[in-house]
Amino acid sequence: MPSIVYRGVGPRIAYERRIASLTQADLARAASVSLGTIRKIERSERGVSDAVLDAIADALDIDPARLLPDKERPDDRMHRSMPGLSSVLATYDAPEHGPCRSLAELDAAVSTVVGLRLSTQYSRIARSVPGLLGELCRALSAASPVDQPAVARLLVDACRAADAVAFKHGAKDLSARLLDLMRWAGAQTDDPIVDATVSYVRTELHFSARTYGVGLQALERALDQVPRVGSAEALAARGALHMRAAVLAGRATNGAAADVHLDDARALGDRVPEGVYRGTAFGPDSVRAHEVSVAVSMGDDHLGQALTLAREWKPPPSLPAERRSGFYIELGRAQLWSGQPDAAFEALKVARRIAPQHAREHRWVREDAATLRRLKRADAESLSNFAEWCHASIN
Which residues are within 8 A (CB) of 358 and not within 5 positions of it... i.e. 6 or more apart? Predict the structure, then answer.
């Protein structure tokens, strides 16, 4: 993928470096960049490639998006990655020959992109995932019958990371093709938990198309295939499907079904500790976050329930960034609809601090920022800056 060169990032890098109590020499060593390069960047004498930007952000332990000027779109590299992904999708069942790392090395590489997805580092995923998907397709094509299921599971996980990039940035057709690849690879694992993961992710199509009832039926069919007893991974897979089914039922205003699925999710959450199972967070805290989501989905008389739940509980830092950010986006919507615009804006800002790339591309963030900007003319500067940051329409 061609490298992107960002301009005007020097002052932000210098600011974040001082906040981190690092000298220019400290930052250069930590980022494996020459001291002269750091000095030129901070003086705005040269631009920054996406690779160097990521290295500097890693050294500062921050999201790369925090270093970009507002006029720069951090999703540029996502759009640059799309041709690479399209090429992989056109040849996945008959890939060209090429080098492949060992299964252990591929497992480590996929674990890295799964971690990036959970922490909403979409720009970093976009830089590496097209090549990784191509390599996994080659590895699967050449795998022995013994290794084939393991490679196919890795391909499913890598596709899910790629789909996070495509779906969050509006490439819905590409997202659908990645989901088809997930299904194709998942069928080669003979693993009901992988099938559950694919079903969980595929529901985003129903959220996007607003076919909530159809999506709910699909998840309920998927639940029939997941073991009711067994490992913590199996229980978590069932629990995650129940959580998502509850939200779909809420969007479909099917309160009875939402309650049933939430009850089942709570029961399963009591049986496994909070954690990430096969790339999906599940446990008591994840269920609580979904209780708020369901209440917001139901709207109207249920908004008070969402606000009460949020007063009694906040997502702990141990939850993945995407889930925590999503909680505050949901809370902000409930507060806005309940006539609390100031609280709603604070919630959106918290969501942004937790996961900037997730919040920036979230449709509700854009819609609610635009509404807040119209309602709160007195706070024009701060709200306008936020609305511009997330590309909200304020006309």
Answer: 120, 122, 168, 321, 322, 325, 326, 351
